Amino acid sequence: MTADPLPSWNDCAAKRGIVSFLAHVTDDASPGFVPLPERVAVFDNDGTLWPENPIPFQAAFGFHELCRRVAAEPELSASPMVQAALAGDFGALVADGYAGLREVIALSHAEITTDAFRDAVETWLAAARHPRFGRRYDDLTYQPMRELLRLLDDAGFKNFIVSGGGADFMRVWVERVYGIPHERVVGSAGRASFALRDGVPVLTKSLDHLFVNDKEAKPAGIHQFIGRRPVICCGNSDGDHAMLQYTTIGNPRPSFGLIVHHTDAEREYAYDAVTKSTGKLVAALAEAPGRGWQVVDMKRDWNTVFGPAGS
Q1: For residue 95, with 0-12 CB atoms within 10 Å meaning exposed, 13-18 middle and 19 or more buried, which class applies?
Q2: I need a labelling partner for 110 at 20 to 30 A (CA). Which of 16, 102, 193, 223 fits?
Q3: 28 three-class SS
Q4: In the sheet where 256-261 sits, what is the strand order?
C-alpha cells in the first residue's frame, strides 16, 4: 500500500482535491496533462507557509533591528512611527497606505549591504523566539504545507514563493527551510546599488523604486519574474486574491486554487475578516465556492500544524 503523501492532512475535500488534481495533470494519457515546463506552483508565505501573528515575522525582525538602532541613535525615537513600532502598534504602521511601516523598514532594511543584511537575519533567527510558542521563527512552518511542497516537487512542479515579504529576507532561509531555491522567490524589493570598495564588489540595499508584491502586484510580479502562468496557487488572504484569480480564471491549462483559513485558535490563531496584524480574508473566501477554490479549515482539516523542532 502506498504511504500517505500528506499524513498531516485529515481526509478532507482539500486533500482529495490536491491528490485528484495531481493525478489528472501528471498522467500523460489524461486530456488535462500538463507538461513539465508548465508545472508551476506559487505559494504566499506569511499565513500560508508559516504564521503571521501577532505580527508578520519579518516585522518582528525589523522591530528588533530598529531597537538596536534607537539604542545607538536615540534621536530616532522622536518619530511617531518609530514610537509606534517600539510600542508594538502595528495598526498605526499599516495605516495610510503602510506609510509608517515603510519608514520603519527604511531604518532596518535600507542603506545596508546585502551581506550585512543576510548576517543580521541569520543572527536574529538563531536567537529570536516567537512570543507565544517559544520556538525559533523558522521552526514554526506549517507541516501540512511542507508536505504539499514535497509532494509537488516529487510530481515535477517548480514551487515559487510569491509574497509581500521582502525577497532578501526570505532568501536567507527558504532553501534550508522549504527546499525552495533563492531564485524562486518573488517578494517585495527595492533597488540595490553596486560598487567596488577597496576592490571588493558590494551591493547596498535601498528603498528606491520599491516594488511591494501584494494584491494586484502579485500577478504582475509572476509575469515579470517567473514568466509562466501558474497552474497551482496557494494563499490565505485577500492579498492573494488577484494571484488566485490569475492562476485559475481563463487558464488554458487545468488549475487549482487553495486558501488556508485560520480557524484554530488553540493550536495557532483564528481570524479572517478581523485580524490583529495582516491576513484579512473576506473577498477571496466569498469567491472561493464559485471558483472551485479549496478552502482548508485549519482546525478541522489538519491533524498537525507545526512539526517537531528542527524538522
Answers
A1: middle
A2: 223
A3: coil
A4: 185-188, 158-166, 40-43, 232-235, 256-261, 294-297
Reported as type and span, the H/E element at residue 241 is: helix 241-248
For residues 140 and 161, the answer to whether their CB atoms sit within 8 Å is no
- One pLDDT digit (tens) per residue for the chain, 311 residues: 478 999 999 999 999 999 999 999 999 999 999 999 999 999 999 999 999 988 899 989 988 998 888 998 899 888 888 888 888 787 788 777 677 877 888 888 888 999 999 999 999 999 999 999 999 999 999 999 999 999 999 999 999 999 999 999 999 999 999 999 999 999 999 999 999 999 999 999 998 888 889 999 999 999 999 999 999 999 999 999 999 999 999 999 999 999 999 999 999 999 999 988 789 999 999 999 999 999 999 999 999 999 887 66
Cα–Cα–Cα angle for 108, 119, 185, nearest 5°? 80
User: pTM (2 decimals)?
Assistant: 0.95
